[in-house]
Structure formats: C-alpha cells, structure tokens
Amino acid sequence: MISAGNDVVSLAAIDITRTNQYKFYSKILSEAEIPLYNKFSLARIPFEIFVWLLWSVKESAYKFLQRSEPRLLFTPVKFEVVNLRLPHNCSLSPFNYPIHEGKGFKEISHIQSTIKFADNTLHACSVLYSELIHTVANSGDDFNNLLWGVKKIGSDDSEAQSAGVRSFLLERIKKECGNNFRVEKNNNGCPVLLSAAADFPIPVSLSHHGCFVGYSFMKPGNLDSDGLREQSTGSPES
C-alpha cells in the first residue's frame, strides 16, 4: 500500500493532570497496552508521555489507513500497539533543532512500534523529546526511503500551522526533487504532492499541534532532482 501517516504532539499543550486520569487515558489505551509502560518507567519517562506517545502512534496509523478507507473512524483503543522497542538509554532530551528532517531513522535514536488494526499490521518510528513527540507510520518496517521532518514555528494559530507545514514540506521536496510541486487534496480529502509536469500524486501526511508542524512521505523511485519523471508502467496512485 502506498500511503503516508505522521503525527506530532506538543507536550507543552497537553494537560498532565487530565492525561493521568483513568477516565481519560482509558479512551486511548487498552488494558493490554498499559503493561508496555514498564519499559518507560525504567527509563524514568512519565506516564503521561507514554499515553501521548501511543496516541501519536495510533493517529499516524489511522492517517495511513484512512487514505484507502475514507470512511474509517478513529477509535484509539481499536488500534492496538502490540510491541514497543526503546533505544538504548532512552531519555527526554531537549529539541535543539530549528528544523529536524531525515530519510529513514537509522541515524537517529527512535522508538519502534508495531500496530494491529483489524487485518492490518503497521509499523511506526517515533522521535521523543522533552518538548514533542513525532511519529511516522508505514506498512512495512523498512523506512529507508521515507522522508520526514518536524519544525517549531512561531505561532499555534491554525492558519499559521496550516501555512507553516505546507511551506516546510515544499522546501524539503524542492531540495530533494526540484521546484515543480504543489500540495493539493485528493478526492477523499487526503493531502498529496502534485508535479506540474506530470501530476502524479504522491501521498503525503501533514500534522501540527501547538507550535510544531510535521510531515512524512515515501519518496518514489522515479523522483530525481529534475522533478517527477513519468512512469513507464502502471497507473497513478491517489
């Protein structure tokens, strides 16, 4: 499946007291997922951050699946995180980057997770800082060609978030593939990258929360510095 899913959580915008109440977190976590926190408690990471990490993982998986299932409703407890792998010496370090971007996650400390929903199994990688959580979902566990980024902007106003995440994405695609791209929505309301030359839609995921914005998309093999080349076979994906 060609799709994209990412989510960003600004930890300055969460309500810590409310998050730690069972009435709240039971709407996000299943009873089977709560024991997964044991690894985080050993790393001295607060429970509320664990809750929002799983929210971020589930939201990313939902966005990934929604593209092919537009009527899908997001019920967090139905997205089950069945595995979490923490990096060695997992800790909450400060976000010291004006912009943080990558291709895959081999060069960065990250949390790996596996998510089950109905007959689907998805994988996710999350980066965790004292200010934010950013998660990217994928159908497989190979993230090598997946491009992602997270950035702090100057305002949490909705218009600033929307404009900021789009310009952030277009700056990245310009560096990777040239300047012939724009962000639109497909017939199901999901964002895609379109090339002015070929209009071959690339699924992209956009997210924002508080003063943080993020994106993710899988770089197709037919992208180069001159933009999008026409495919030799097959039909465009939406």
What does this entry look like structurally?
The chain has one domain. 38% of the residues are buried. The N and C termini lie close together (11 Å). A 5-stranded antiparallel sheet has the order 1-6-5-4-2, covered by helices on one side. A 4-stranded antiparallel sheet has the order 3-7-12-11, with helices on one face. It contains 5 helices and 14 strands. It is α+β, with helices and mostly antiparallel strands. The longest helix has 20 residues.
Please provide a brief summary of the model:
The protein is globular, with a radius of gyration of 18 Å.
Tell the overall outline.
globular
Radius of gyration: 18 Å
What is the H-and-E element order? EHHHHEEEEEEHEEEEEEE
Q: Percent of residues in beta strands?
A: 25-35%
Structural class: alpha+beta
Largest sheet: 5 strands, antiparallel
Intertermini distance: 11 Å
The helicity comes to 10-25%
